[in-house]
Write a structure and sequence with these properties.
Layout: H1 2-18, H2 40-46, E1 51-59, E2 65-82, E3 85-87, E4 89-92, E5 95-98, E6 100-109, E7 113-114, H3 115-120, E8 123-129, E9 132-138, E10 142-143, E11 162-168, E12 171-183, E13 186-195, H4 202-207, E14 211-220, E15 223-224, H5 235-239, E16 247-250, E17 259-263, E18 272-273, H6 278-282, H7 287-297, E19 306-307
Antiparallel strand pairs: 1-13, 1-15, 2-3, 2-6, 2-7, 2-11, 2-14, 4-5, 4-10, 8-12, 9-11, 12-13, 14-17, 16-17, 18-19
Length: 312
C-alpha cells in the first residue's frame, strides 16, 4: 500500500502546489487542483463535476472481499492574526507567515466488504466532514511597522501576539459501491462518488469540494483485471466497463493484481514515483525558482512525479 499511497499523494498535491505560482499572482490567486468534485448546482453552472465513477473487473472466488478508500483534499483557509486583527502577512522573528489557502487530506474507507454482499445490493458509504477551526500561536517578536521606536523593543517593531487560525467548511457526499456478474469467474465492480453539498457561489463551492478525489480498491481472495490489457477471455467484459472522471489502473508493485487506483488523470498500469527535479516534474523552463518559492511556504513542495510501466 505504501507504493500506491506515494502515487496517490502525487496526484493529490501536483496541481495544489503548482497554482498559484506565487502569492502576488493576480491571475492565479487561488489554489487549483485536478479532479474536483463540487456541489451539484455550482458544478452545473461552471461545467465542472458533481459526480465521478469508475468500473473495473475482479476475478473473484467464494471468499473474495474488497475494500475501497476515498481520498481527497479539502480547502483550508489559513488566516494570520496580529492579536485580534486579521492581516495578510506577519514577520515574526526571522520568519514571514502569510495568509493563504492550504489543504487538508481526507480519507474515508468502506471497510472490507464481501463481493457476494455487493452482488446482492449496493453499499453506501457516507462522506461527512464537519466544518471546523483550529488555531496555533506563533512564538516570537512580531515585526510591525511603527512611526518611532518603542521603548524595550527592537527599532521598528512592537511586541504582539501572532496566531495562525485555520478554518474549513462542511463537505458531504456519498460513495455508492456495487457489483454485477460480468463473466464466469469475474465481477464488474462499480464505485460512484457524489458531492451532496450545496453552495451559493464559486468560492463556497471550492470550500465544500472534494479536490483531487480518487479511489483505491484493495482485493483479498481475488485478482483485478487490467482495464488496458485484459486477458482475451475477459476483453469483452473489460470493454463494457464505463468510467466517468476517473481512470482505473492496476497499482502497487509491478505485476501485482491486488490493487486498483482510480485517479482523475490517465495513468498506465503500475505507475511509479519518478525521482527527478522540479524542472522535469513540471516541464517548464524557469519553474524551479517558482516551485522553490512554493516549497518555502508549503512543506509538501518537494519533487514528485509519476511514470507508468506495463503498456506502451
Amino acid at each position: 500500500m505504501d507504493a500506491v499511497r506515494a502515487i496517490a499523494d502525487t496526484i493529490l498535491y501536483e496541481g495544489h502546489l503548482l497554482w498559484p505560482y506565487r502569492a502576488s499572482a493576480a491571475r492565479h490567486g487561488k489554489r487549483w487542483t485536478i479532479g474536483g468534485v463540487h456541489p451539484k448546482e455550482e458544478a452545473e453552472r461552471s461545467g465542472g463535476r458533481w459526480t465521478v465513477s469508475a468500473e473495473f473487473l475482479l476475478e473473484d472466488g467464494p471468499e473474495s472481499t474488497v475494500e475501497f478508500t476515498l481520498r481527497f483534499l479539502q480547502t483550508v483557509h489559513r488566516q494570520m492574526m496580529d492579536g485580534d486583527a486579521p492581516v495578510p502577512e506577519l514577520k515574526v522573528g526571522p520568519g514571514t507567515y502569510r495568509t493563504r489557502q492550504e489543504a487538508r487530506e481526507r480519507e474515508i474507507t468502506s471497510g472490507r466488504l464481501p463481493v457476494e454482499r455487493l452482488l446482492r445490493s449496493p453499499v453506501r458509504v457516507p462522506v461527512a466532514i464537519a466544518a471546523g477551526l483550529d488555531e496555533k500561536p506563533v512564538e516570537g517578536t512580531v515585526q510591525s511597522p511603527v512611526e518611532r521606536p518603542v521603548e524595550g523593543t527592537l527599532e521598528g517593531t512592537v511586541e504582539g501576539t501572532a496566531r495562525i487560525v485555520r478554518t474549513w467548511d462542511r463537505v458531504t457526499g456519498t460513495v455508492v459501491l456495487s457489483a454485477e456478474r460480468a463473466a464466469p469467474g469475474a465481477v464488474r465492480l462499480r464505485a460512484v462518488l457524489v458531492n451532496t453539498g450545496a453552495a451559493a457561489d464559486r468560492d463556497e463551492a471550492a470550500r465544500s469540494a472534494m479536490l483531487c478525489a480518487h479511489l483505491v480498491a484493495d482485493a483479498s481472495g481475488g485478482a483485478f483485471v487490467s482495464p488496458a490489457d485484459p486477458p482475451a477471455r475477459l476483453a469483452g467484459a473489460a470493454a463494457a466497463c464505463h468510467s466517468d472522471g476517473l481512470w482505473p489502473v492496476l497499482a502497487g508493485p509491478p505485476g501485482g493484481h491486488g490493487t486498483v487506483l482510480a485517479a482523475p488523470i490517465v495513468l498506465y498500469d503500475w505507475p511509479q514515483v519518478a525521482p527527478q527535479t522540479p524542472d522535469d516534474l513540471f516541464g517548464g523552463a524557469g519553474l524551479d525558482r517558482l516551485l522553490a518559492e512554493l516549497a518555502a511556504g508549503d512543506p509538501r513542495g518537494g519533487g514528485r512525479a509519476t511514470t507508468g510501466t506495463g503498456r506502451s
